[in-house]
């Protein structure tokens, strides 16, 4: 590859044509910058490395779009920013989603967190409303009425194993829903208060 093709735009054009050498040059040029940006927010070198890899993988996978990009540097950093934000969103959601049963049971937070609590509870209720009817009923019987799996199975005329499977599916759905729908203000609050 010619030494004259070092501008980001020229590299993008070469990468769009499948030029792996140009891709390597782009990677060498921006790896440390994107890594530093990721580290500044994530404070975890493994996650920061993952972000950088994901950014360059996204570039390679969507290389056919690169000729349309007017500002390659902005494009790279927007991809990186979005991936960092997604990672931080997961981090914000983890305390809720990792202990969703405990969170749902306790429903009490410090007074200074009541607004956050209200928003998260609304989000959780939205997620619960989207469960299939029988799964929602099983979840509510367990969480709202405090019934055991055996008691739920007996009342609904189904096996304990069916109750267990439905609870696992319900909790899995709720975790995913919260991770992807956590309010932006909670994300930003976490992001800027760390």
Automatic annotation (TrEMBL):
The name this protein goes by in its record: RNA polymerase sigma-70 factor (ECF subfamily)
NCBIfam families named among the record's database cross-references: Sig70_bacteroi1, sigma70-ECF
Keyword Endoplasmic reticulum: no
Keywords per UniProt: Sigma factor, Transcription, Transcription regulation
Superkingdom, taxonomy of origin: Bacteria
Pfam family, one: Sigma70_r4_2
PANTHER family in alphabetical order: RNA POLYMERASE ECF-TYPE SIGMA FACTO, RNA POLYMERASE SIGMA-70 FACTOR ECF SUBFAMILY
Signal peptide: none
Limits of the RNA polymerase sigma factor 70 region 4 type domain: 123-173
GO biological process, one term: DNA-templated transcription initiation
Sequence similarity: Belongs to the sigma-70 factor family. ECF subfamily.
GO MF term set: DNA binding; sigma factor activity
Xref: InterPro entries: RNA_pol_sigma-70-like, RNA_pol_sigma-70_dom, RNA_pol_sigma70_bacteroid, RNA_pol_sigma70_r2, RNA_pol_sigma70_r4_t2, RNA_pol_sigma_r2, RNA_pol_sigma_r3/r4-like, WH-like_DNA-bd_sf
Species, as recorded: Pseudobacter ginsenosidimutans
Start and end residues of each RNA polymerase sigma-70 region domain: 28-91
């Amino acid at each position: 590859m010619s030494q004259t093709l070092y501008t980001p735009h020229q590299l993008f054009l070469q990468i769009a044509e499948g030029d792996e050498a140009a891709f390597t040059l782009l990677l060498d040029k921006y790896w440390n910058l994107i890594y530093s940006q990721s580290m500044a927010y994530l404070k975890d070198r493994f996650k920061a490395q993952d972000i950088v890899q994901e950014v360059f993988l996204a570039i390679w996978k969507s290389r056919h779009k690169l000729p349309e990009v007017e500002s390659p540097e902005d494009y790279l950093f927007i991809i990186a920013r979005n991936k960092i934000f997604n990672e931080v969103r997961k981090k914000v959601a983890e305390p809720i989603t990792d202990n969703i049963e405990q969170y749902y049971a306790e429903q009490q937070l410090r007074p200074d967190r009541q607004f956050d609590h209200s928003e998260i509870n609304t989000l959780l209720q939205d997620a619960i409303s989207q469960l299939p009817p029988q799964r929602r009923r099983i979840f509510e019987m367990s969480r709202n009425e405090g019934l055991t799996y055996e008691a739920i199975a007996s009342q609904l005329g189904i096996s304990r194993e069916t109750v267990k499977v439905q609870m696992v599916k319900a909790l899995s759905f709720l975790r995913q829903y919260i991770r992807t729908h956590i309010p932006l203000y909670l994300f930003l609050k976490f992001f800027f208060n760390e």
